Fold this sequence. Notes:
The chain is α/β, with parallel strands linked by helices. The protein contains 28 helices and 8 strands. It is about 65% helix and about 5% strand.
Amino acid sequence: xxxxxxxxxxxxxxxxxxxxxxxxxxxxxxxxxxxxxxxxxxxxxxxxxxxxxxxxxxxxxxxxxxxxxxxxxxxxxxxxxxxxxxxxxxxxxxxxxxxxxxxxxxxxxxxxxxxxxxxxxxxxxxxxxxxxxxxxxxxxxxxxxxxxxxxxxxxxxxxxxxxxxxxxxxxxxxxxxxxxxxxxxxxxxxxxxxxxxxxxxxxxxxxxxxxxxxxxxxxxxxxxxxxxxxxxxxxxxxxxxxxxxxxxxxxxxxxxxxxxxxxxxxxxxxxxxxxxxxxxxxxxxxxxxxxxxxxxxxxxxxxxxxxxxxxxxxxxxxxxxxxxxxxxxxxxxxxxxxxxxxxxxxxxxxxxxxxxxxxxxxxxxxxxxxxxxxxxxxxxxxxxxxxxxxxxxxxxxxxxxxxxxxxxxxxxxxxxxxxxxxxxxxxxxxxxxxxxxxxxxxxxxxxxxxxxxxxxxxxxxxxxxxxxxxxxxxxxxxxxxxxxxxxxxxxxxxxxxxxxxxxxxxxxxxxxxxxxxxxxxxxxxxxxxxxxxxxxxxxxxxxxxxxxxxxxxxxxxxxxxxxxxxxxxxxxxxxxxxxxxxxxxxxxxxxxxxxxxxxxxxxxxxxxxxxxxxxxxxxxxxxxxxxxxxxxxxxxxxxxxxxxxxxx
Length: 648
């Protein structure tokens, strides 16, 4: 049986998380991918034609903490190595951490593929007093080694020209006789039963013996029934060595990398910590970390909830739309359109312009713009991955480790994409719990902005109640899910990139990309939602829905009957439903505002998120989650209505 191999002439970017692969990808192709200063940004292989050779495809692979592969992102990288027609590899390494870089180099060398080593973030290494003897390292490895600063474009031209000189690295690994005999026997068997067209049999043998599932799948596809012979060799090797074979193989890589790194790096004898290093230490310090987090959240609230949702929304909604654009457009439609129902569809109570476009452009756009800017600054500074350390102890209560905070923080931008990034988590159990919590209690950027704007306008106390309610529900739901879903908690192992000043260009580029997504994806959905509301109103279905929902919405939640319409809109997008409540904020009491926002935040995830849940967990699991979330949202909303009316 032959496995499928891509026919593309591929150059693969490989390396650890957060070493600058995606920045180099952009430099070499002109294609932009989300570049963030935290691990886990890339969870699928991205490809584009190179600027220097239109016949070649450059692939940006997910960061790997180690090989053999264990997590989904590592497995994606291993699949690319196995199944792409690779011309050469470009290993992107962190010049500040040469030992870790060379640990991966040592294994890649065994695969026998021509490669180039780019030691990125060379400027940060120099600032920390770390100097790498690049010529000596290149001679030892037998491949081109270059210093690069991808964010500034330094060394990129030299990297491009060096690709034609890429060579398979010199082998670095020397095993003891027992392990070496097992590797030789497995290498011979792979060469006979399942030869790879590009990867050396010895490298595949080391990965296979180390327990790499993707390599095992490849070998099984190639060898067919003869795979049993390979499996038997692995069992024999496991039984013959003293200790766990994967651990022994990893230890040799670490020792080889230590030896080579020691000879290649020089560190300044006296170098005081940089300001960025001191800041990075303080933000994860047990004493200072939480106060700094609260300060950061308060600044985000001021920028998004006060400036974005109050000042900018006031300028756009009240002054521009309600004061100028809507009256002018209404006059134009009424004077030129002679069909009453079309006129009402455009500028009526549920008009495509007066409701759909006004909501999307005057209410939501300024809020998401300020949120995207704030979020971009936080992720580009390196602060977000430090939340994994701060949150680790708290997340232990819900059967997760602090790494799960990254998808949840990304969910504040877009729950749909955050659901995809749960692949950076290391077990199906962790992914299921995190996806459930994302769907339940994490508001996306548009919805969060509406919440900040509405409750911030009521009082800081109202916003604080909502935030504490979301945190409490998140922990309660996570605790119950962790008890019900079998499995164990995996300890935190994550990458902490350096703290640095955010790049204005990077922040603006990411903000622009996210706003483009908003305009392309969200505005059509707002218009569709508005049309549905118009159709329901004209057919009499909307008043019937409002009457039918009155015992639940008015009785249990204590909201005005017309708030039922917001929950109808919420079936399409939660932020559309939140915007419906925002639009009637003047008629809501503080308690009603808090209860409404708690309920709509917990309400059914948007349609795009639901589809991503189906993709990641299957239709049965996704629909089961929704079946739990919807009644749970109304239950919690009603309980808060009773509680707040009793004490507030």
